[in-house]
Amino acid sequence: MWNLGRKRPWPPSFAERSILDSELHRTFAIRRINRINERKESFRASLDEIAEAVRKHHGDLELTRVAEAAECRKSLALIDEERNGAETPTASAVA
Q: Are 34 and 42 in contact (CB under 8 A)?
């Protein structure tokens, strides 16, 4: 659980998440990428804009800009090596 400097827990309850989700959709509706299929929830918004909207509707939060993403980074390293013609190492060799 994240400490956001608030008395309210994070992540919020299901009901609070539903309200926040609705508020974010209203905030970014004009910036929806797919206007034909509204189940595709993609919007043109920066992390700063999203964080600002969450703060407005839910309160302060701690935003992590660089995630650990160890498996993703290992996979990208493997792909890079494959593209550069290097012999494909096993996943354990990248660790």
A: yes
Q: Compute the Cα dihedral for 42, 48, 54, 56 and give only its sign.
A: negative
User: Between residues 72 and 61, which one has the greater pLDDT?
Assistant: 72
Q: Strand, coil or helix: what is 32?
A: strand
Q: Is the pTM of this model over 0.70?
A: no
Helical (H) or strand (E) element with 55: helix 47-58
What residue ranges do the domains of the chain occupy?
Answer: 14-58, 66-95
Q: How many CB atoms lie within 10 A of CB 80?
A: 10
d(CA 17, CA 58): 9
